[in-house]
Queue: 2 jobs
Job 1
Amino acid sequence: MKREQLIASFEKKKRFFSHIEGHQKKPLYQPKTLDVPEGLYEKCSACKNTFRQRDVIKNQLVCPHCHNHFRARAIDRLSMTVDAHTFVEKGFGYITLNPLFQEGYDQKVQNYKKQTNLDEAYIYGYAEIHSQPCVIGVMDSYFMMGSMGSVVGEKVTKSIEYALYKKLPLIIFTASGGARMQEGIYSLMQMAKTSSALRKMDRQGLLFISVLTHPTTGGVTASFAMLGDIILAEPKALVGFAGPRVIEQTIRQSLPEGFQTAEFILEKGMIDKVVHRHEMKKTLYRLLKMHRRREN
Ligand SMILES: [Zn+2]
């Protein structure tokens, strides 16, 4: 609980500063790892060992024993990926509507807003990775499973357009359960919208790196997540469209071992590389540097 409060208070501060400072690079990011009080424990779902949460956070939310990657919140992801004090959040003020008048949907969104202190399941902004400028977007699977509703789709599109406007490379970390059921056709429409925005980026010859994290499924996999010029994934991340049980029931066959994991789809040629979280920042830096445009 303490850690959540810490994240929440930090989010509030970050939001406050971002509003005032606009485009300027100002200290927004404070690595918070060392402030976490001791005595809180985290259990690894893979090896069942228990570790002090402090150690897990220090280890970038990777199990110190078996290297299982824990789910990371958007804010944690940013703090471990971008240079300190470089992230400037963009795209505020979107309000999630309830276009199909689904019962309880408004309340659900409100609850998630309170729990995560995010407006929606996606944040983006300007950032630097080892001094390489880029636009970075991160999905948060703690907000309604990172599902893509109208606001997430719009913000993803805006982040693409922002990268286009700034002529910067774009990196998106995906983590999503797919399109948001409660918004029906409106969330499905986001797939076409984000994809066509990426087409514009492609025409401009700008780099888009998609990083798939656990889990990336449904409409997100079927749209921008798989449209990266370079597609990376975290070890053992679940990546697929429909869940394995649905597929098994449909085709009435048992599925091969490791089906829909990052390693499996790498073998099948769907992605370019599986990157350990400890190596992610370095890998992204190399890719950005390699593709950096020469200024005339
Ligand atoms: Zn473990």
Note: The chain has one domain: 72-290.
Job 2
Amino acid sequence: MKCDTDYRIVNYGDQDSLLFLAGNHRTFIVTRDLGDRLQAGFHMLSEDEQREWNGLTELGLVSNENSIALRQSTFEDGADLAINVNLTNICNLACTYCFADGGDYGRIKEAMGHDSVDHIFSFIEGNLTPSRSVRLEIFGGEPLANFPTLREVCERSEQFGAAHGVKFVYRISTNLTLLPAGVLDLFARHHFIVSVSIDGGRTVQDANRPAKGGQGSYDRVMRNVRKVRQASDDVTMVARMTVAQRDPSLIDNMRELWRENIFDYFQIYPGVFPADDAGPPAADGGKVFLDMPAIPNKSGSSSSASSASTASSGTDSGKRYINFFLQDGMVGQFREFLAEYPRLFTPDNRFKGVLEYERTAQLVLEGRLALAFCSGGRTYFTHSPDKSISPCHRLVGDPSFDVGRGEVGLTADPVEWRGTVDQHPVCGQCWARYLCGGGCKQENFVATGNLNVLNEESCGYQLLLAEEVLRMMALSSAQYRARDRTELGGLFVSCGRPVVDSGRAPAPATSFLHFRQL
Ligand code: SF4
Ligand code: SF4
């Protein structure tokens, strides 16, 4: 057993540590002293501790179901077929960090039309997975700027579903500044998941997501958010926040939206900036990376993300991007937020969690694993108005990544998108590998010019996320840990990260002194 590959020690509170096993996602509470010795290795156990550890092993609590389940899986497992329907090149906002060049990716010159709808349903027929469930991920530009085609897609899905015995799930990513006639009924009829891009309270939203004329968007968005909520209680509403400011703090900013009691879920993403435009400067005026978890390197030893980040200033692609959560002061804000997080679940608020945190908690608490970082190029494809088919919605702008054409379907084998985390020379040594699944390929490409060479900023954030969620779980109540998380499988968390049960057995009750089950 090797520290930071087979297990991770996470300190919490004043006296305790959590021992997290990568092989089966089981967690044990140990004393800080034992945790410190385990960082050096299992040879540091006392006789008594060793006896208990052997007892846990005999009970099957030290095991490797995750790697076995991954080895036995195929690219079709863990997530349904998902079509990202890139409805239009038009967007009416001018968000400061848009990855789509304002909606058109520098490439899309028109809105999606009737032909593409035909192509999408032929593609679905040809690529159905055994689940016979299909997700329609409605995207743009601002997709509600092409409402006629959205309506056509939904109508076709009803006909297709009835004819082929296929169930459809509908989700839209929208800034919700537009509300065309008929859209409220459409959302309600299909029980849409409406993911609204809103970065927090008025000050933050108006600064980050202004209209093209420069005026703020907060009031318009919130007016429409309330209309959608009033139209149906069966619409799942998600606030998709991008965090790119220190003030107001993450918790204060998020609470402004939480108080509205409209959103079921939140997604909280760090803003990502080119290195020469890294948002607000650090308190001392410099760009400082600190207090970060360790990223495994190819030889299996660890290097700190702080040094890794600093070292990454020159990349193969010539660009370097900064993950805002790794900047000075933000790690502290992130920790503060997660310390407060379990208290956001109250009987009088419909809040059911931050999607990425709840998914991570679910993998640990319920014995599940991620088969990959996302479904991109596995069971998730983006269809665009120019008829291109891309394995990733963020790579639409680069035709060299295309894997097909609307008229003919897939023309290339997306083999590069289907490797497993255990095959990756760095990720395969990482303690968080079956939570993370191996990193975002698009973010890798931007930083390194290679889909499979890690973007160290993104990797550092994934490690931070995994560790902080483990710490939050250790500090939370049994009631929080026992929450029903079944619904998460249908919400396309982390670009549809494919997740399966590891098959680990339910844990028998134990009364060990040194290794107490969380
Ligand atoms: S990308 Fe994910 S799996 Fe790979 S090293 Fe980083 S945290 Fe671990
Ligand atoms: S996780 Fe990254 S590579 Fe995968 S679909 Fe999303 S943006 Fe693309």
Note: The two ends are 20 Å apart (CA to CA).
